[in-house]
Design brief:
metal-binding; Jelly Rolls; 17% strand; seven-stranded antiparallel sheet; alpha+beta; globular; 2 domains; binds 2-oxoglutaric acid; metal ion binding; binds fe (ii) ion; 14 helices; Alkb
Length: 483
Amino acid sequence: MRRLVRANPYHSRVAGPVSRRIGVLFFCSIGEMKMSVGDGGEWSWRRKDPNSRGGSGIRPDPVGDDGGSSGISSAPAGSDTQNGGRNSRIMMFGDVPVDLEATPNNPLFFTSSFNCNENPGKRRAAQGRDMGADSQRSPEHCEVRAAPEVVCKKELASYDSDTHRRCDGVVNFIKRKTQVDRRNQETPRSDGSIQVEKLHTSIGLKDTTSLSASHFVNKRKPFDICLPRRRQLDFAETFDHIEDFEQTYEAVQLVEQESRVLRPGMVLLKNYITLREQIISHSFSTKTFIYFALNEITRKWREIGIGPGEFYQPVYQDGAKLRLQMMCLDELMVAHIPNEFILAVKRAMGDAQDLVKKCDRRSNLSNDLPTMSPNICIINFYTTSGRLGLHQDRDESRESLRKGLPVVSFSIGDSAEFLFGDHRDVDRAERVVLQSGDVVTFGGASRMVFHGISSVIPNSAPKALLDEAGLRPGRLNLTFRQF
Ligand SMILES: O=C(O)CCC(=O)C(=O)O
Ligand SMILES: [Fe+2]
């Protein structure tokens, strides 16, 4: 772990008053802490059944009125018309070997985070916990959706024996899924299910397969996190403007400036990106992290958008559209996590650990906030109406969850209200505003903390970020994890 230079303005500001820190720690220590280890070990990012809302909480349940968590990307529909009514997007970088074990009970794509053949009552209860009206959707959705996944498993087996690396499995799989979707004709039936007829023989799908769950409609123009007509980020040019950017950026840092331990294992580094810049000038900095992130992500997004992985909007069997958008990534489009991101994450982790230690000298970091090596990066983009329901991040391996390896989350763009707590209960959750440049780390005793975004605060992004980088109004969030 690379250590922060100690003599820096950041450190004089990070810890905050002792009384306050103790208050936070005390409060948290008496809270009920659930450390349930769920389906760790399964790769289930963005593969959750959009109809299953909640489940074991593996993926976010976009708050309240949203259609649950998604496949590779999700975008709850909202009032934002600028992007066609979608209010969040997700994409993923990563370099994680994935063991794909598709079975009818554990299909790989769009699966629920709970077992499809599990007690339907239990599942329904889980779905209904905080999901609003849509929670009464039929649990069969999950079961019948196993069909294409089984097909894909077959495909995958042969794919694996090709030259492709095994770790491409997820992506290969998704590609197959995309092909299945394209080559099959879907006809709604009177009972609400969908008859799928094979149009292409090489896929290996049975002649007809019933699907009662969501399917793919409404292909749209690709989403771009930068506004139209903006030039693509040009690094050389960008660096010329960096001083201006920094000044403006700092000027709009409005709210609390103080980094602090939010609860055991959960650290907020305020205004971190800018502060880092004051300290490190000799290497890739976190200021450039913003630009780099935008550049990388925008580029990837565009690549993906024009490729086969277009967004689509699934529908319920009654025709209601899920309030999210999904995207399938092709293997060619999976990006490794740029090294610069990894460095920035490691530094942030080191600084968060320093803060924990500073607050409690007796802290044992390997328990309280262990170090992780990021190999997954999930990128969310929230437009100004975006939000994300309280959820636990439990998609990582059992081992990773058991060790409490932290999630490190960077915020860029508009500020947002971040909720966190021991329960999936908005009323009981604590709140903190995350601004552009803030980093939140949660591991150790907070690894399974419920968290979410209740709102994005419009017009709160650093102006320069919009002007210089052309970022669309909204919030970009990058979470790094170790599988
Ligand atoms: O946007 C955020 O700050 C949280 C994102 C998150 O919790 C997730 O992607 O799992
Ligand atoms: Fe999360």
